[in-house]
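This follows on from our talk about sequence and fold. Go ahead and set the record down below:
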Amino acid sequence: MTSSIPTPQRQLHIQAIGAKIFHSVNIISLFIMLTSGLQIYNANPVFGGRAGLHIPPIFTLGGWLAGGRHWHFAAMWLFSLNLLWYGIYVLITRRWRRRFVGVNDIKALQKTQNSRRLIYAWHRIIYTAIIPILLLALLTGIGMYKPAQFPWIVEMFGDWQALRIVHFSSVPMVIIFTFVHWILGKKAGGDQLTESMFW
């Protein structure tokens, strides 16, 4: 009579409902801001003026400048409020202790040979680094949205054109973060971890 050794079951990843809502709303609002932002960009490209590179209509939202602005600013409010409530949620629940970079993560990069520990350390570093990028995108966006009310934001970056360039530059940063965040999530917990962030 032979005894079979039970195979260990894969760990189930369960995310808090707050994290699911945050990630889902973020994906929707970022997609709307990206496509509508490209519509706004087409009206007067940051690089090259009106003769600069234009984005094909299939990648834009709004149909024209005013339509793109309406979609962009509506999604901006959705994104901002989502970011605000999640920040409060993270502080109250103390999730920041497990989600954001700490001294131990920096030490792990220097000393550990454990690949999984390195993945978690890099994940927290990337997760933390996106915060100033998002705040920069919001700050420059507000400066472009209401330059008369917030002239000091424009002055911080020198002039209007510099403000537009910085704001536009935040787009590839967010896209790169999303891709790296997804790759690290797959390495840490596979597709199940990624899916648990949304449902």
Remarks:
- Residues 1-10 have pLDDT under 50 and may be disordered.
- The CA atoms of residues 13 and 167 lie 35 Å apart.
- The two ends are 44 Å apart (CA to CA).
- The helical segments are 17-43, 65-93, 96-99, 103-111, 115-145, 151-156, 160-196.
